[in-house]
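Two records follow; treat each independently.
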Amino acid sequence: MGRAACVAAALFMAAVPGRADDWPQWLGPQRDAEWRETKIVEKFPAEGLKPQWRAPIGGGYSGPAVAGGRVYVMDRQLPAGGKNPANPFDRAQIPGQERVLCLDASNGKMIWHHDYDCPYTVSYAAGPRVTPVAHEGKIYTLGTEGHLLALNATDGAVLWSHDFKKDFNIPTPLWGFAGHPLIDGDRVICLAGGTGSVAVAFHKDTGKELWRALSAKEPGYAPPVIYTYAGKRQLIFWHPESVNSLDPETGRVLWTYPTAPIRFGMTIPMPRQAGDLLFLTSFYNGSLMLRVGPEGPAKVWESRKISEKDTDGLHSVMSTPWIQDGYIYSPCSYGQFRCVNAATGDRLWETYEPTSGKSERWGHAFVVKNGSRWFLFSERGDLIIAKLSPGKYEEVSRSPLLEPTNRDPGRPVVWSHPAFANRSIYARNDREIVCVSLASP
């Protein structure tokens, strides 16, 4: 490129406002909970955030995905007069349908929906758990009872499907199938379960099984993720018996690190990388920090206490933590939003402000970074801008966003991860999905 062309290109780029990005899967474009759009508000207006649109939907924990001007989300529809059990741990069969919805991202109008019969046999039966994946004209979804679908993004037509319970002869986990699928090359990589099939890869275009690996009594719920360690791409699968590294192309097991059995199978937060470190956290068992080298992993530190109340380190329930400059930020077992030293596991501070406001079992907030600050989506339905540092939690701005409608934990909560795209937030509860602009004026 000649000098004049370079100058022209530079001027053009300088004139273009901050880029607009999609949020096509769990935790965003790079599956890392970082929102990279610019020109985002520094503080919310005094009168609070006002939705650009609202659209009615059914129940579910499934977060939305946003791609190509459309919003994809899953919900559940009960039959007329039907209702979920008063006891959320009751696993009696409940009739109903699961739906995949496609909405116009600019106004929330329904473009298409795909419905299928899906009786539930799970605890916390509000609806689907998994965020859809939008990729190259297809939408991949995984339902609570193990229905894996590949749909045409244009019209919702089914391109291929699998039923995990039938395919792998496995029962539905206590809290349903909840591992967000991962696209890598031609592969859709899924957390399934059973003997030799905890990790399974399918061809993204045909649905043909490409490989399967790992065995465990129960699969847990942690999403698979790919990190590079010692110059090698490694597919990380964490189930309640061990954390494992696989070759993502073949499923060959590169290493396995056995863990103390994770109580109630609660491997839920996605494992997190920080340089050569790999961090895991769960509600009862607490934290495990590994250092991954050419020969595999070695323990750096781990929680000494297996407990939900008498805890040390970090005992996260659902939230995928953030690791920044040697410190870990995340909600802990009873809603204590904590800062933990990544090198030692020592706690530096805690606050209930961004989660439940007080000590509550499984008090929760989702953590997403944007620039030098974080957007926290509280279980109370508030969106918060905060600065996190080893010294303190500093709340910059807060606005109510959604009514907490889910009462399964014994209090009203919103437990669905939002999407950040088009300089907006897309968030849902069990009644509606909203879009709110977060673009700076």
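The next record belongs to a different protein.
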Amino acid sequence: MFRRMLLLGTVAGAAALPLSGKAEMVAYTVEPTHTAATWAIPHLGISIIRGRFDKTAGKINLDQIGRAGTVEITIEAASVNAGNKKFEDHLRSKDFFDAEQFPKVTYRGRLGKFEGDTPTEVEGELTLLGQTRPVNLKILSFKCRAHPLLKREVCGADAATTIDRSQFGMTSSVAFTSARVDLMLQIEALKD
């Protein structure tokens, strides 16, 4: 479990000094090349279709001592990637993400639960197709360390939730697929 520390020197053999123990909000910027929003949806009751969004951005604010923080993730809807161009074009259309009219999918929340100094849940809201609904994320994994190349603190998390896409107005093909969508966020964020 990560403990708040001030990291000095190189990663190998770095000296570490504990912070003063005061609550401190620390800002992190999502590192897009190691961050992904992925999804899975049942298809015809016989298989699971999986995909991802290739362009994500965001900010994380974290105070591990005070057990508080915020999360803001922005996803470019047109960056949907399902491994098939024809299918991706359909997903970008008005039938699904309507990426031209609603280019961004956003998630904003606060770190609501902790075990010790480790966050375990985000209580927040997802905005999709211009509609905002409450959606909580369960944090499955959370770790921080010194980045071996950048020599800066980096935090990573895996989080997951399940939504009913029809609640956001995405009702196309529900009879053939499902309204249920499993969402996963794999995030790495660098300390500002």
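Discussion point: Confidence is low (pLDDT under 50) at residues 1-20. How would you locate this feature using only the token line?
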